[in-house]
């Protein structure tokens, strides 16, 4: 509990340090930091992980992901917790399970981003690093504040779904299809629930007390006109 509070305070402190004193934090300013100032890219990521409709534990997960501090098999091997022979991706694809592989390039989980982009009508982001993917995905829906907030929310929910699916496969042996994972992204709510036993999962999916994510997403998609990138996209 004390460790969690410590990291929460550090996250908030770094966001304040790099916010505009007059206008506050903006996704565009964070993206600028990620793109043009390598030395403070992690500070910019601290800003990007925060969203008013995202539970704290999802932001903490994203914070750890951007710093490669999740207990992926590659990291567990590095720390001497797993043997080198046990570093393969939980999906069974045969690759080493690093964060970059698991969330971006895995032949099993990677196609989920294409499904998400097709669902919301945004261009597919082609980035090989997680911070860049986050920043590019956030701005891929257009320049309006509403679009950026919407895309930011979807990215955070997506990585939450992937990580929980990874844990389910690793610890309980249950497997969901990509379509089912996409359905979770559409339907997850905003109120956090009690976390599962840390020995079996990082956390549960969060349950709804008020509006579901699908209802809010449907309203946003209906009212926002995302730019048409189809002509500039490759097959």
Automatic annotation (TrEMBL):
> Which species does this protein come from?
Trifolium subterraneum
Name of the protein in its database record = Reverse transcriptase zinc-binding domain-containing protein
Ranges of residues in domain Reverse transcriptase zinc-binding: 25-113
Among InterPro entries, the record links this protein to: RVT-Znf (IPR026960)
> What superkingdom heads the lineage?
Eukaryota
Q: One Pfam family, please name it.
A: zf-RVT
């Amino acid at each position: 509990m004390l460790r969690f509070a410590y990291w929460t305070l550090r996250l908030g402190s770094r966001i304040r340090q790099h916010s505009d004193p007059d206008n506050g934090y903006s996704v565009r300013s964070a993206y600028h930091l990620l793109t043009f100032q390598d030395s403070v890219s992690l500070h910019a990521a601290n800003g990007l992980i925060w969203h008013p409709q995202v539970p704290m534990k999802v932001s903490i997960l994203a914070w750890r992901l951007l710093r490669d501090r999740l207990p992926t098999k590659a990291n567990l091997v590095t720390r001497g917790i797993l043997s080198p022979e046990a570093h393969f991706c939980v999906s069974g694809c045969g690759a080493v399970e690093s964060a970059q592989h698991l969330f971006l390039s895995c032949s099993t989980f990677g196609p989920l981003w294409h499904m998400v982009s097709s669902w919301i009508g945004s261009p597919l982001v082609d980035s090989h690093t997680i911070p860049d993917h986050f920043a590019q995905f956030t701005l891929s829906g257009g320049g309006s504040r509403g679009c950026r907030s919407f895309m930011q929310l979807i990215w955070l929910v997506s990585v939450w779904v992937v990580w929980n699916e990874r844990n389910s496969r690793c610890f309980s042996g249950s497997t969901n299809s990509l379509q089912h994972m996409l359905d979770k992204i559409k339907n997850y709510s905003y109120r956090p629930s009690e976390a599962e036993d840390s020995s079996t999962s990082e956390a549960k999916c969060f349950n709804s007390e008020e509006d579901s994510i699908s209802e809010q997403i449907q309203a946003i998609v209906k009212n926002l006109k995302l730019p048409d990138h189809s002509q500039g996209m490759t097959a």
